[in-house]
């Protein structure tokens, strides 16, 4: 081949090679672009998955809170103590019962994916009337998808379910034995489980201790303070008599500048009766516990002249009342029959509850111990007095010195033959509420 021919061939080869490379231009950009699209698709899908996961957690929180709030209605209505008196339908019927309404109201305050739940469904199980259960199902439909809609996916649905029960430990289910009640934060009023002279100790808690007097649930009563050495004779009406209790110093007291609380911390050294009314007590009270001379908790032996003003002042501070009658800013209790409705007073420390027509908690709701008189002629603060149960009431007012007007919300008696393992009450109630999902 001549030199001229070789040059021509090399020139053609180089031209062909350049042409081939020119045809491959942009392939790398296409591969990178395709990879970026895939990575972006996975990233945005992960965002939607995380969004769905977060929404699922929010739905579960709403269901849990709603179930607990609804189950509290079983306790406050008195149903666990008087299932034959308090109608099931008024407590829970799947739509308009007290438990249903409370659960729906609480669930509605939660946001799932930025908005309220699409539906809140409630149902109740009354198989064990002493331990009724509430199931709440919270659903959020049309959950927004930020990027999945690119592929035509319009939205998701999340659903969560929770179950809670009001557990009344005063019932004896046989085996295993029922646990006893161990309640803190009770008020220092030891109530007689009888009408003096206590010939029949079944006035509040029945003799078998399995269930307490259902006829009292939702009724108005007056608790009457009596002297520690009261002789065993019938007291003046009304007969719901109590002794003042001398217990250790309390905690969590309101400010002395709060409504009617200017006597906080002014009691004699070592005597905390007033403050144990107005504040949250530290003493534990349990079934069968003796209260008497030499015990950590004993009857206050001061005269009624000392105890009456302390009772009145402590109670008015507790319920946020400006004075002794029913219209002094305290919360109200409508007791036309169970369940009892609580109305927010103008002095309620929670501004959201003031003047509200129906609230689910109140500082006026308290628990007090109930005792049985010992055998023999003596039934006063000079002997041991044994706790036989707990009475939960909503305090209305202090109409006269040493008298406390209240509405009965619940009663839990003790079973002395089955001590079991102690459990703590739910704050102000002797009937705890717990999640069992």
What order do the helices and strands come in, and which of them pair?
Layout: H1 3-24, H2 27-76, H3 88-91, H4 98-107, E1 119-125, E2 133-143, E3 156-166, E4 181-184, E5 189-192, E6 220-225, E7 240-246, H5 273-278, E8 284-286, E9 290-291, E10 298-299, H6 304-319, E11 332-334, E12 341-343, E13 365-372, E14 385-397, E15 403-413, E16 423-424, E17 433-435
Parallel strand pairs: 4-16, 5-13, 6-7
Antiparallel strand pairs: 1-2, 2-3, 3-17, 4-8, 5-7, 6-15, 7-10, 9-14, 11-12, 13-14, 14-15
Helix pairs in contact: 2-4
Mean pLDDT comes to 77
Number of strand elements = 17
Which blocks of ≥5 consecutive residues have pLDDT under 50?
A: 171-182, 205-211, 419-429
Report the end-to-end length measured between terminal Cα atoms.
Answer: 93 Å
Total helices: the number is: 6
Order of helices and strands: HHHHEEEEEEEHEEEHEEEEEEE
Q: How many structural units, i.e. domains? A: 2
Beta-strand level of the residues, as a percent range?
15-25%
Give the structural class: alpha+beta
Write down the overall geometry: elongated
**How many strands, which pairing sense, and closed or not: the largest β-sheet?**
6 strands, mixed, barrel
Helix share of residues? Answer: 10-25%
* Strand line-up across the major sheet: 5-7-6-15-14-13
The whole-angstrom Rg is 34 Å
